[in-house]
Design goal:
Length: 310
């Protein structure tokens, strides 16, 4: 169930305000009435796309297609280039796996493993997921497996109380896999629809992270053989190109199935969504567009393109 272009677009439009202003101001002169359609315009467009945090590789790929269409005389005026660019970005963000659907298990509970570096907004993003699922009448359970940071457990517990969902936790320094096992056991016993598992956000060595996440997955599988059903990577939109690097690193470590792009409202670097999708191949499933648990939207490529180029 992806959101449409109606009411939900309002939040996304507001969340993309800084990115849209940066991009629209950048493109304003290029597509001004009376501007001549020539090679100079195409060259300037390439510079603008790179500056919009789409990433050099993605910007070059898009501009190569623009140049090919230009040489084939597919454009009559600069506005045709603008429409072509918008459609191309919509297509890059799309695909059969695009959109904000969680792959729910045939038989509950559905287990969603949430990964990401410390400071990415991971814990808050989990709260937002719990909130949106609860509103859809799903019974949600949280597992506080980031046991190395007392603040992470405390923060998740505070969110659980605010949203009205239960949480499985342990003392600081406890074995994360043990907490995960207890949570899986509780999810089955309590007939939970969705189990959201928070994990440690340390990325100092891939090997340690891989071992820890691998152990968590193994113990969950003892109780639920087909779990986890989703592995969502939380990325901080404000980090721009660094978010693409993080996505590539995590994909080497764990089988990431989708992305939660946090803090989209606080940055002009929202164009990174396009670069991540194109270069890493992972679908953006959710976006955070504010600070409250309600400030979350399921991602929709059409809505994003409309909000970005409005």
């Amino acid at each position: 169930m992806a959101f449409g272009l109606g009411g939900a677009l309002g939040k996304l439009r507001a969340g993309l305000q800084k990115t849209r202003e940066k991009l629209s101001q950048s493109l304003k002169g290029l597509f001004a009435i009376g501007r001549k359609l020539d090679q100079d315009l195409i060259d300037e467009l390439e510079e603008k796309l790179i500056a919009a945090d789409m990433g050099p590789a993605t910007a070059t790929q898009i501009i190569d297609e623009v140049k090919a269409a230009y040489k084939a005389r597919a454009f009559k005026d600069p506005n045709d280039v603008y429409v072509f660019l918008k459609d191309k970005i919509r297509a890059l963000l799309g695909g059969p796996d695009a959109g904000g659907d969680i792959r729910f298990a045939a038989t509950p509970p559905t287990v969603v493993l949430v990964v990401g570096v410390n400071g990415s907004g991971k814990t808050t993003s989990i709260a937002k997921l719990a909130s949106i699922l609860t509103k859809e009448k799903k019974k949600v359970l949280l597992a506080a497996c980031d046991t190395f940071r007392a603040a992470a457990v405390e923060q998740l517990e505070i969110w659980s109380q605010r949203i009205g969902v239960e949480i499985i936790k342990a003392q600081t320094g406890a074995d994360p896999a043990a907490v995960a096992f207890d949570a899986a056991d509780a999810a089955v016993a309590r007939k939970v629809d969705v189990l959201l598992v928070d994990t440690a956000g340390r990325l100092h060595t891939k090997e340690n992270l891989m071992q820890e996440l691998g152990k968590i997955q193994r113990v969950i599988k003892k109780k639920l053989p087909d779990a986890p059903h989703e592995v969502l990577l939380v990325l901080d939109a404000t980090t721009g190109q660094n978010a693409i690097a993080q996505a590539k690193t995590f994909r080497e470590v764990v089988d990431v199935t989708g992305l939660f792009l946090a803090k989209l409202d606080g940055t002009a670097k929202g164009g990174v969504v396009i670069g991540i999708r194109n270069e890493v191949g992972l679908p953006v499933k959710f976006v955070g567009v504010g600070e409250t648990p309600d400030d979350v939207e399921r991602f929709d490529p059409d809505a994003f393109a409309e909000a970005l180029f409005e």
